[in-house]
Design a protein that fits this description.
119 residues, mainly alpha, 67% helix, 0% strand
C-alpha cells in the first residue's frame, strides 16, 4: 500500500538532496580510482601518512552512497529509471509515456528505498 512508502518531510528532502548528488558521487569515484601515487609535496608532518589507505576509505564511502542509490533504482521498472533521475537531478519534466500519478508513485517509492539503504 502507498502509505507504506511515507517518510517524514525532513527525511524526504534529505534523501532527495542525497540523490541529487549522484552525479557528483560518480565523478568522485572516477577521480579516486584515477589517483595513483599522489604526492603532496611541501607539507610535512611528524606522523606517517597513508594516502593509499585514506583513498581506500574515501572510495568505500563513495561506493556506499552509489550502491544505496543504484540498488533502489534497480527496484524501479527500467522504463521509469531515466525519467525519474532526470526529474530529480536535472529538474526535467517527466516523459509523456506515463501518467503523472504513476511517475509520482515511483518517485515516492524510489526515495523511500534510498532512505532505507542510507540507514
Amino acid at each position: 500500500m502507498e502509505r507504506d512508502y511515507k517518510l517524514e518531510k525532513w527525511r524526504y528532502y534529505e534523501v532527495l538532496w542525497f540523490v541529487k548528488g549522484y552525479p557528483s558521487y560518480l565523478k568522485e569515484r572516477m577521480n579516486l580510482l584515477g589517483l595513483k601515487g599522489v604526492s603532496y609535496g611541501g607539507i610535512r608532518s611528524p606522523s606517517v601518512g597513508d594516502p593509499t589507505g585514506n583513498q581506500a576509505v574515501q572510495l568505500s564511502k563513495v561506493e556506499d552512497k552509489i550502491k544505496a542509490i543504484e540498488s533502489a533504482l534497480n527496484k524501479v521498472p527500467e522504463e521509469y529509471r531515466k525519467g525519474l533521475l532526470d526529474n530529480i537531478i536535472k529538474g526535467k519534466r517527466y516523459p509523456d509515456y506515463a501518467h503523472t500519478v504513476t511517475w509520482k508513485r515511483w518517485r515516492r517509492r524510489f526515495i523511500y528505498w534510498v532512505s532505507e539503504k542510507m540507514q
